[in-house]
Every structure is written in C-alpha cells, then in structure tokens.
TrEMBL record:
<protein>
    <submittedName>
        <fullName>Anthranilate synthase component 1</fullName>
    </submittedName>
</protein>
<dbReference type="InterPro" id="IPR005801">
    <property type="entry name" value="ADC_synthase"/>
</dbReference>
<dbReference type="GO" id="GO:0000162">
    <property type="term" value="P:L-tryptophan biosynthetic process"/>
</dbReference>
<dbReference type="InterPro" id="IPR019999">
    <property type="entry name" value="Anth_synth_I-like"/>
</dbReference>
<feature type="domain" description="Chorismate-utilising enzyme C-terminal">
    <location>
        <begin position="181"/>
        <end position="432"/>
    </location>
</feature>
<dbReference type="Pfam" id="PF00425">
    <property type="entry name" value="Chorismate_bind"/>
</dbReference>
<dbReference type="InterPro" id="IPR015890">
    <property type="entry name" value="Chorismate_C"/>
</dbReference>
C-alpha cells in the first residue's frame, strides 16, 4: 500500500461534486477530531435492487463475506505499512437500506417497493483521500499496484476550486398527516399493554421536490446547519443519500467491536439556562432513562452473539450529548470479537439497529411494517466502510435525505413506550427533523 502526505487544506466535497464517478462516496465527522474519508476510483459493485430483495438463493451479507474472503486469500493483499494508522486502508464502501432486514428476518411482512432506490450496495475501493481533523494532516493512499492513482488524486486536489455552495430552492414539501402517526402511537401502546413489545420506534415521512440545487449543495447546507459526527454523501447515479447522522451502528478495530446507541431526546432551547436545565431534565426523566436502559440491554445482547463470553461491557453509560437542535442520551457498549465471526456476521447481529426498531427487535419490525405507510429505504439503514482486515465503521442513517433526481424524501421517528404521550412523540419527530428542514430553507 502506498501512502503519501498532501500539504494544504483539501476540499473533499469539492472533489466529490466535481467528479462523482471518480469520488462517489464521502464520509465526514464535523468536530475537531476524527477523520474525513473520500473514497476514490470505485471498481466492481454488488448491488441489491428492490426486485432482488426476496430472491431465493441471494443474500447480500453472504455476498459481502464471499468478497471479503476472496480478497483475504489473495497473496497480493499485504499488511498495512503507513506513517499513521489510517481508518480506511483498502476494501469496500458499504450501504444497507432498512428493507435489507427482509433477508435477515423473513417473518417481517415484505411490502412491494414502488421504487428503484437501491436496497444495498457493496463497492470495491482501492484508493482514498483521508483528512485527520485533529492533526490537520491529509493522506493519499492507494493499494499495491495502484500507485498511479496517487498522482491522479494529488493532481485533482491541486486543481479543483473550492466548493461554492448554492442555495437549495425547495419547490414543494408535504408532511405525513399527523393522525397517521398519532393513531400508530395508540396502536403501539395497545401492543405494549397486551405484552407484545416494550418499545417501538415509529417514524413518519416528509416528501418534496427541489426547484434548484443538488445533493452536494444540500449536503453543504446540512453540515452547516445540523453538524453530526457520522455525516456523509453517497452518489448512486440517479439516487443519492445526504446524511448528518449522530449515531454509530458498529465499529470493529483491533478485535474490539463497539456500538453507540442513542435513545432519549429533548428539543433544545434558545435560552442558555433553560437549555442547560433541559439536559438535566432529560437525564432525570424516568421514561427517558427506562427507554435508554432497555436499548442498552438490547445492544448488549446483540454484541453477546458475536463477542467472546464475558467480554461485553458498557464503558460509557447515559451521557448527554448536545447537537444543533436536540439533546440525546447516548451510551457505548463494547466487547472482544470472536475470531470466527466474519464482517457479514457482525452486521447480521447488529442490523438494523435496536434504537430505530425497538424491543424485542423482531416483533417491533413486524409492527413497523404494519403501521408505517411507506418504505424507509435508506432511513435507519447504514453506510460506512469495511477494510481487508475486517475492521469497519458503520453509521445509522438518521437525519438523512434520500434524493432521486429532484425528488426528495426524509423521515424522523420516536421511541414509543407504555406511557408515551402521542402529541409529545409527534413533536419529537419534528424536533429531529428540524435540522433537515433548516437545510432546505434558503
């Protein structure tokens, strides 16, 4: 693997916008620490379309494992030698839409999807540009035998002009009817009373049409108005994902597997004293605490399926994190990955995330399929990367737009429990959608 430093402050979004075929995927953190990764020179892809979702004999995550095994068995895949530990050093970009769950849990009723938005995608990536926000250093890498790509990426970095975001003009926007959500909350509360479930994450949809602007402009506005640590933009040709997600589904590095669930949300106040009090109230609220602990237990169980016995622990419990428009309660659960567990098995154990389905997971997914009027598609799916050595980092696609040319859709949800107040849960969905709505305002 060839790695070289690049002097300067590269504009990775500008490169993506200028050449989406060469640089189709960009993952970024929005703080002062962490890495931004622009994936370059995509090669072969495995794509799961809607009509293939329940096709017998085809499993996307099995195909992912087959691709990973094949690469590991090639003699030209060498150990990583680099002046710095890069988070991505050759492998795949991975995207999984929520409806991939039908390949993992056949008991969930499959609805016909009237869209060609991809369900899942695995793209081989031999090169990337990586920016370390902490050290302000930029690295260009390419796999063995691909050294010429280094020069091409360096040239692109030197000549591309800075990205000049243009205002995105919204032509139309329709919000799902309140009563559909409110009725759904009441139905879930009955399911809870009858003992079917403890908690269900119910979501609702906004749909619109852009009068002008594109995915790159929308992403720039979203990152400015709703920054989050697991942001990204992915271009699939006719379709794009634009995300500013605060939530990690799973990471694997050096044998340690981690997940960081978010459960418990209050909208922020513009008054500093009241905003600080809201943080304290959120952490002290019995409903929010109970909902969060339930999710922590669920994720501990999920990790227990793939980790060494006795190694799963909660190393960060119920920390309040503040974002542009909401406060969240977050925890971190980790464990030591068993040596026999493949990347596909890791994703099968964790996907879809418990915080965006509920507890118990299978029954909640069945209820979601019953109550939600349209498919989630990318929403509450996941995107990230997988390295040759099995390390990975995957987000949960919340606070995310789906674009199909000028058509746009997004969703926001809330966790429904026994004592949920329907109107308050409705307001929570709007608080979570606020950053997305602000990105659409000029």
């Amino acid at each position: 693997m060839a790695v070289t430093r690049f002097d300067g402050s590269p504009d990775l979004l500008a490169l993506h916008a200028a050449n989406r075929l060469r640089y189709p995927y960009l993952l970024q953190t929005q703080g002062k620490q962490g890495w931004d990764i622009l994936f370059a020179f995509p090669q072969s892809s495995i794509k799961l379309a809607t009509f293939e979702l329940i096709q017998k004999g085809f499993s996307f995550l099995d195909e992912l494992d087959h691709a990973w095994f094949a690469e590991r068995n090639q003699v030209n895949i060498q150990p990583v030698i680099s002046p710095v530990e890069l988070p991505f050093h050759g492998g795949w970009f991975v995207y999984m839409g929520y409806e991939l769950l039908h390949q993992l849990e056949p008991s969930v009723v499959h609805k016909t999807l009237q869209t060609d938005f991809p369900i899942a995608l695995l793209t081989r990536i031999p090169a990337a540009i990586l920016c370390d926000r902490g050290s302000k250093q930029t690295f260009i890498f390419a796999e063995d035998g691909q050294d010429a790509l280094i020069d091409e990426m360096r040239h692109d970095l030197n000549v591309v002009p800075r990205f000049q975001a243009e205002a995105t003009v919204l032509k139309t926007l329709m919000e799902e009817e309140d009563n559909l959500f409110l009725d759904g909350v009441e139905k879930i509360k009955r399911y809870i009373k009858e003992g079917d479930v403890f908690q269900v994450n119910l979501s609702r949809e906004w749909r619109g049409e852009l009068g002008s602007g594109d995915a790159s402009n929308l992403y720039a506005q979203l990152c400015e108005r709703n920054p989050a640590p697991f942001s990204g933009i992915a271009d699939f040709g006719r379709h794009q994902i634009v995300s500013s997600s605060p939530e990690r589904l799973v990471s694997v590095r050096n044998g340690l597997v981690e997940t960081r669930p978010i459960a418990g949300t209050y909208a922020r106040s513009i008054d500093p004293e009241q905003d600080a009090q809201l943080c304290r109230d959120l952490l002290a609220h019995p409903k929010e605490r109970a909902e969060h602990i339930m999710m922590v237990d669920l994720e501990r169980n999920d990790l227990g399926r793939i980790c060494q016995p006795g190694s799963v622990e909660v190393d960060d419990l119920m920390a309040v994190k503040t974002y542009a428009h909401v406060h969240h309660i977050e925890s971190n659960i980790r464990g030591l990955l068993r040596s026999d567990v493949t990347p596909g098995k890791v994703l099968k154990a964790l996907f879809p995330g418990g915080t965006i389905t509920g507890c118990p997971k299978v029954r909640t997914m069945q209820i979601i399929s019953e109550l939600e009027q349209s498919p989630r598609l990318a929403y509450t799916g996941s995107m990230g990367y997988l390295n040759h050595d099995g390390s990975m980092d995957m987000n949960i696609l919340i606070r995310s737009f789906m674009l199909s040319q000028q058509e746009l859709r997004f969703r926001a949800g809330a966790g429904i429990v026994a004592d949920s107040v329907p109107e308050r849960e409705l307001n929570e969905t709007r608080a979570k959608a606020k950053g997305l709505l602000r990105a659409l305002s000029s």
